[in-house]
Design brief:
- It is a single chain.
- With 174 residues, the protein is mostly beta strands.
- It has 2 domains: 83 residues, Chitinase A, domain 3 (Roll); 54 residues, Thrombin, subunit H (Beta Barrel), CATH 2.40.10.
- The protein is 7% helix and 35% strand.
- Strand 6 and strand 7 form a beta hairpin.
- The chain is elongated.
Length: 174
């Protein structure tokens, strides 16, 4: 079966930066819904017409991947407003940040704690791969029709490098 809009693809991949450093490897196939919210538009576009067993080597500039790095999404906030067990790498949904933070923090982002100081915490609303061009070696492991339920949900629940809030120590991107 060839890949068409609103089908399900099972993929494995190796993700590298432009210097060749491996950022992520997905060795076991994971299913993604095409035509939903699971994959970046350029990845979906590149997969069209391919079939199980095909391999693709993609190069995505930041504007087609996770966007340019936006310094206005970095905030320095009082340490006392955060839980005692706060760790670097923890993430918070912008709508669920502790009360009392600066009012200029947009709520429609996931914020990562990037540094902890005795008096302050640095929150970064950029995706960890923002500003980075990526190379993605993809193998299509399987292709199938999506069910009406899957199409209705718009996702299979595993997005391409989506951040999940409040996950201390999570070092995987997928």
């Amino acid at each position: 079966m060839k890949i068409t809009p609103q089908c399900v693809v099972a993929l494995t991949w190796t993700l590298k930066d432009t210097l060749g450093e491996v950022l992520d490897e997905l060795g076991d196939p994971v299913e993604f819904l095409l035509g939903g919210d699971d994959l970046l538009a350029k990845i979906e576009e590149s997969l069209q017409g391919h079939e199980s067993g095909d391999r693709l080597d993609l190069h995505l500039e930041p504007e087609y991947a996770f966007g340019d790095y936006d310094e206005t999404l970095v905030f320095l906030e009082p340490r006392t407003l955060f839980p005692a067990e706060l760790e670097e790498g923890m993430t918070f949904d912008g709508a669920a940040l502790p009360a009392g933070l600066g009012g200029q923090i947009p709520q429609n982002h996931i914020y990562t704690v990037t540094e902890i100081y005795p008096e302050h915490v640095v929150l970064d609303g950029n995706h960890p791969l923002a500003g980075i061009a990526i190379r993605l070696a993809v193998k299509i492991e399987a292709v199938r029709q999506a069910s009406e339920d899957e199409i209705g949900r718009g996702t299979l629940g595993t997005g391409f490098f989506k951040l999940e809030p409040l996950v201390p120590g999570n070092d995987t991107l997928h």
